[in-house]
Amino acid sequence: MSDVNASVSELNPPSSVTKFAVCTFCGCVCDDIEVHTEGDRITKAKNACSLGEAHFKFHNAERHYPDALIDGKEATVEEAVEVAADILYNANMPLVYGLSNVTCETTRAAVGLAEMIGGVIDSHTSL
Q1: How far from 28 is each of 22, 23, 124, CA to CA, in Å?
Q2: DSSP 22-48
Q3: What is the pTM of this model?
Q4: What would the pLDDT profile of 11-43 be if each residue is shown by its tens digit?
Q5: Distance of alpha carbon 57 from its chain centroid, rounded?
Q6: Cα-atom radius of gyration of the chain, to the nearest Å?
Q7: What is the pLDDT of residues 91-115, one digit of tens each?
Q8: With the CA atoms of 104, 107, 113 and 117 taken in that order, what torsion angle do they form, in degrees rounded to the nearest 10?
Q9: Half-sphere exposure of 80 (CA within 13 A, CB side)
């Protein structure tokens, strides 16, 4: 009987709706997106513009890579965080870059990190 239940759940993956999702695809940072999912696939992005809908629907949760790599070899996240922290601690003015497609909360955390490690922040707008 469990084999039958397993195959039924595979045919009908769990679905969910997330309200007030934030789209970080462009500078508008719309925060009223309703994201509908089936399993690990986004099937609908209500209230999103055509760019935002494409951003949500064509980015999925398929796992092509391990959670962490150290020198190109698979590692645990904990090990990778330790190595990253060591690199940042020993760096001279490390650069925090690439914040053009993130939420305000992520930017706030990145600014805090840059201040903590004596780093600098830059973005694509300076190019």
Answers
A1: 10, 8, 16
A2: PP-SSTT----EEEEEETTEEEEEET-
A3: 0.51
A4: 677 899 999 988 877 778 888 999 998 887 889
A5: 14
A6: 19
A7: 999 999 888 777 788 889 999 999 9
A8: -150
A9: 12
